[in-house]
Amino acid sequence: MTTRRGEAAALAGLLATAGVTHFLKPRFYDPIVPRALPGPARFWTYASGAAELAVAAAVAHPATRRRGGLAAAALFAAVLPANVQMAADWRDRGPTRRAVAYGRLPLQAPLIWWALRVARTRP
Questions:
Q1: Each residue of 78-87: pLDDT tens digit?
Q2: Do 4 and 119 contact (CB within 8 A), yes or no?
């Protein structure tokens, strides 16, 4: 297995794990859904979990890896508002929770870079 294919498998695993947790632990995600989105937060929690699972499947399969990597980059950009919401909401929490909330913000850039790198992986 080449390094890039290994990166694709790791990215697919990360996305699949994140997607599953949206269904297993939706109460964690509901509060960070930006309040500007219409409808109930649980809808967006489940929708984003389903999107992560679909993108994970696309990244895992060589025939759809390019599109899956591009979709993963878009997904990572799209969830940035939720991370901003979490950082704003957790600014008065304890130092550990604040570090988690603030730490998620700069992670989006390397995740987007990783997804774009995977999109360039040859099947």
A1: 988 888 888 8
A2: no
pLDDT for res 1: 44
Length of the chain: 123
Q: From CA 104, how far away is CA 94, in angstroms rounded?
A: 16
Both structure tokens of 19: 């997607």
The C-alpha atoms of residue 8 and residue 121 are separated, in whole angstroms, by: 8
Query: CA-based Rg of the chain, rounded to a whole angstrom?
Result: 15
- The overall average pLDDT reported for the chain is 92
- Location of structure tokens 């679909």: 54
Cα 108 from Cα 3, distance rounded (Å) = 22
Alpha carbon 72 to chain centroid distance? Answer: 8
- Predicted local distance difference test score (pLDDT) of residue 63: 94
CA distance 39 to 13: 29
In 3D space, the residue among 59, 66, 65, 61 whose CA is nearest the CA of residue 11 turns out to be 59
- Quote the pTM value: 0.87
